[in-house]
Each structure stands twice: as structure tokens, then as C-alpha cells.
Specification:
With 317 residues, this protein is of the alpha/beta class. The chain contains nine helices and 14 strands.
Length: 317
């Protein structure tokens, strides 16, 4: 292994604001210090998420870590150093995860848009052998959100589900997890006209073109509506008697259930067989990966809400 430098390259913002304006490349950031329960990862790939630009705006600055900040929750890379209490990983292991256990509560000052990041062992898992680093980086926050959201509404085998935003980063995984892990009886999902075939390929039985029809006017109703776009009021109209809506975007119209993930390496490990068998697939947006030098452009693209699957940054120097 090469020696770990004292300083590294990272994308940093030192004030809150629009991420495209405040995010700056810094070639000389101190490499993070390792705690006993952490590993130091040489970052190979990172995915970006809406939480990154909402955090940069200062949307939850009261519970944020102090500035300056290198954003990024999703990481895939190689372990280069391990803390004294770490049991699961050793130097050289290829790992991935969402580096912040509690999404909004003091997320790390040095995230995954940096050459190195220090991460707790419990939020990481070994990278599935069949996935590239870019594919692995695309998964953690979205796949954990998909799974835990379904768990939150007690989804189970034989139930039907409608996914709002089925072609997005989270929605594309909700379809796959509902089908292959939970055993859904029927999956409907919404997307724009050009993405209906994609919904079918992901496992949706009933693709709905939201530009042409309103899902709430369908005769068919569902046990669960998973809202990945922030339309809870409409989502409630798609439910069967006794059904439940889960949403990942606040505010939620009661009785819809708002939900935020808790990052969990054991869950990633549990889902590994579904990934390695190819039943559940990582989905990168066709424009991905963006090179590290184009991180600002990647955020501009993510903010259009037009991405299909995930926006990934790779390679990270």
C-alpha cells in the first residue's frame, strides 16, 4: 500500500448556499483522522443525492457538522487503514456504504467527494464482487431507503404496491426490492413516456405514464404506495382500504408516513446475494459517471430531477 498523505484533494464548501456556487475544488485538505471504530477509505467512486444539495443550502444547519464541508454520503473504495476496534475489515478490502448513520444528525464534515474518508465499520459492507466501484457507490443510500421504507409499512409477500417515481434512484430499487426480496404480488410504477420500458425491465407489471394519466384515477388500488417524489396527498388516493403510504420527502400529508433511512452495513450484507445473483441491479444514469473534475456539473444535472437511476462521480483521483 502507498503511504497515506497528510493532505488530499476534495470538493469543499465553506458557506451555505446553492451547491453549484459554493462548492470549490481544494487540492490541499487535511486527510481525516481515524477513530478506533472507523476505517480510512481511499475513495474510488461516490454517488450524489438530493440530501447533499439540501444540506449545502443550510436546510438543517442547526444539526449539521461545522463548516467547511466536503459533501457526499455514498462511497465505494478500498480500506487503507483500520482503527483498533475494527473487526470486519482489513487493509485492502473493497467496501461500500452510506457513510452517515443518521442522515441529518451531524453528518461527516469530510464526505465521499474527497480522496479519503473515515467511516464507522458498522455502516460499511464488502463490495459485491460483480459490481464495479461506480455501480457499488450508486447503491447504499438508495437501496437502504428502498428496503427500510418497505419495512416501515410492513410490506410483505402477496401485497401490491404503487411506486411514484419508479425510474429514479430510490424508485428503481423499490421496484426491484419489492419484487425480489419481499415478493410483491403486483407492482405499478409511474415515470415519463420514454422510461416505461425501463419500468418493465425493472419488474413493474403496470407502468404508468404520468404525462398521460393520473394514477389516482385508476380503478385498481394498492396495499402500499411508495412515494419517492413528494406527492403524498395524491398518493393517499391510490390506496386500498387499510393501505399505507410511505414517503421519503417531507412534508407528508397524514396518514402518510414520512421516512428517513438509518445507514446499516449489515443490511447491505444481507442484500448482497440479490446483487451478486443479478436479481437486483445497480442503475446508473446514462450520463454517469461524471469525472471528479465535473462534480459541480453533476450536481446541476441531479437538480433537474430528470436523472434515471443514480448520478455517480468516478474515478476519484
Amino acid at each position: 500500500m502507498t503511504s497515506i498523505p497528510s493532505h488530499m484533494k476534495a470538493w469543499i464548501y465553506s458557506e451555505y448556499g446553492n451547491i453549484e456556487e459554493v462548492l470549490k475544488f481544494d487540492p490541499n485538505v487535511a486527510t481525516p483522522h481515524l477513530m478506533e471504530n472507523q476505517v480510512l477509505i481511499k475513495v474510488v467512486a461516490a454517488a450524489i443525492n438530493p440530501v447533499d444539495y439540501k444540506r449545502a443550502l443550510g436546510d438543517f444547519k442547526d444539526i449539521d457538522s461545522p463548516l467547511p464541508t466536503a459533501p457526499g454520503y455514498d462511497v465505494a473504495g478500498v480500506v487503507v487503514s483500520v482503527g483498533s476496534e475494527v473487526k470486519k475489515f482489513e487493509v485492502g478490502d473493497e467496501v461500500y456504504g452510506d457513510i452517515n448513520e443518521i442522515t441529518l444528525d451531524h453528518p461527516k464534515s469530510i464526505g465521499s467527494l474527497a480522496e479519503y474518508t473515515a467511516v464507522e465499520e458498522k455502516v460499511l459492507a464488502h463490495k459485491p464482487s460483480n459490481l464495479s466501484f461506480a455501480e457499488a457507490a450508486s447503491l447504499p443510500l438508495a437501496i437502504i431507503t428502498a428496503y427500510q421504507g418497505l419495512e416501515r409499512v410492513e410490506f410483505s409477500s402477496g401485497k401490491s404496491i404503487l411506486v411514484l417515481g419508479g425510474a429514479g434512484g430510490v424508485g428503481s430499487l423499490v421496484i426491484q426490492i419489492a419484487k425480489h426480496v419481499f415478493g410483491a404480488s403486483k407492482i405499478a410504477a409511474t415515470a415519463s413516456t420514454g422510461k416505461l420500458e425501463l419500468l418493465r425491465n425493472l419488474g413493474a407489471d403496470l407502468p404508468i405514464d404520468y404525462t398521460k394519466e393520473n394514477f389516482e384515477e385508476l380503478a385498481e388500488k394498492f396495499d402500499v404506495v411508495y412515494d419517492a417524489i413528494g406527492e403524498t396527498e395524491r398518493a393517499l388516493k391510490g390506496l386500498k382500504e387499510g393501505g399505507k403510504v410511505v414517503t421519503i420527502l417531507a412534508p407528508a400529508t397524514p396518514p402518510a408516513i414520512p421516512f428517513l433511512l438509518t445507514s446499516d452495513g449489515d443490511l447491505l450484507q444481507k442484500l448482497r446475494p440479490y446483487l451478486e445473483s443479478g436479481k437486483v441491479k445497480a442503475m446508473l444514469d446514462p450520463k454517469s459517471p461524471f469525472p471528479f473534475s465535473e462534480t459541480v456539473e453533476a450536481f446541476s444535472y441531479l437538480k433537474t430531477n430528470r436523472a434515471t437511476g443514480k448520478v455517480v462521480i468516478y474515478p476519484i483521483p
